[in-house]
Amino acid sequence: MKKRVYSGIRATGRLHLGNYLGAVKGMLAVQDEYDCIFSVVDLHAITTPYDPKTLAESTRSVILDYLAAGLDPEKCLLEVQSFVPEHMELAYLLGTVFPVAELEDLPTYKDKKAQHPKYVNMGLLYYPVLMAADVLLYKGELVPVGIDQEPHLEIMRQIARKFNGMFPSAGSGQVTFPEPRRFKTEGEYVPSLTGEGKMSKSVEGSYINLTDDLETIKAKLAKVPTDSGTLGGSIPQKGGVANLFVLAYLFGGKEMHHKYVEDYKEKRIRYGEMKQELSQIIYEQLVPIQERRRVLEANPEKVNAILKEHAAKCREIAQGTIKEVKEKMGFLQI
Question: What residues are labeled active site?
Answer without folding.
Answer: 112, 198, 201
